[in-house]
Amino acid sequence: MSARTVIDILELAGLYVFATSGALMAVHQRFDVVGIVILALLTALGGGILRDLIIGDTPPAAFTNVSYLVIPLVAAAVTFFVHPVFQRLTFTMLVFDAAGLGLFCVTGTLKALDFGLGSLQAVLLGITTAVGGGVLRDITARQTPALVQVDTDLYSIPAAAGAAVVAAAHHTALPMPAVATAAAVAVFVFRIVAMLRHWTAPRAWHRGAPDNAPD
Questions:
Q1: Residue 153: phi, psi to the nearest 5?
Q2: Interior angle at CA 175, CA 172 and CA 179, nearest 5
Q3: How far apart are CA 170 and CA 16, in angstroms?
Q4: Dihedral (CA of 74, 94, 110, 169) sign
Q5: Cα–Cα distances in angstroms (integers) from residue 73 to residues 21, 108, 131, 136, in the given order
Q6: How far apart are CA 132 and CA 139, in angstroms?
Q7: Which DSSP string do the residues of 105-155 spell out, in sequence order?
Q8: Percent of the chain with pLDDT over 70
Q9: Which of 137, 149, 155, 138 has the alpha carbon at shortest distance from 193?
């Protein structure tokens, strides 16, 4: 299987799982069918559209490849009818979101590298691809984006780690299909463990105010 084929498979899988996470949030927020479709599309396509606009790949793939629209719509329809089988919608949504995070940080990084960007720039675009759709989903659902929530479990850091691994491997003789798949799985596991163990990023240290400080 060629590297291009593996990347395409990862991209399409990412579209489905991210669309599902968006649709599940819409269900959790008690949106109607229109809201479910909108959140599914925003979550699946938002990060990729932003990436494509930045690197100059226009029109973005979402508007030139019909499968980029069909897959999120299918995910929204499936979620609309089968969401009762998910016992815990919030955690299930986070699992799908973690899967999308892993898949899109890899494909976003690889596409940036294919367009001739440097490793650091490619990592940044990989992160953008991974978190962009989730930020749009949360804002539309009137939630504080997970990316910037206080004391949120690690979110962008797993994506950054996966993107960095892919960018570093790009300059070696390692087989990229295997590296890309392994990196996506590793980011998914990293994010899930961070949620279960409540790992958070460090915060700025502030010295406590003295006891005699004025009110």
A1: -65, 150
A2: 90
A3: 26
A4: negative
A5: 13, 21, 20, 17
A6: 11
A7: HHHHHHHHHHTT--HHHHHHHHHHHHHHHHHHHHHHTT---GGG-TTPBS-
A8: 92
A9: 155
Q: Is the per-residue pLDDT at 165 higher than 90?
A: yes
Q: Which of 188, 185, 61 is nearest to 114 (CA)?
A: 61
Upstream peptide bond of 175 is cis (omega within 30 degrees of 0): no
User: What is the token pair recorded at 159?
Assistant: 């994506």
Q: Tokens for 31?
A: 């949106």
Dump pLDDT digits (tens) for 176-185: 889 999 999 9
Beta bridge partners of 200: 153
pLDDT of residue 34: 96
Query: 96 CB contacts (<8 Å, ≥6 apart)?
Result: 17, 18, 20, 21, 24
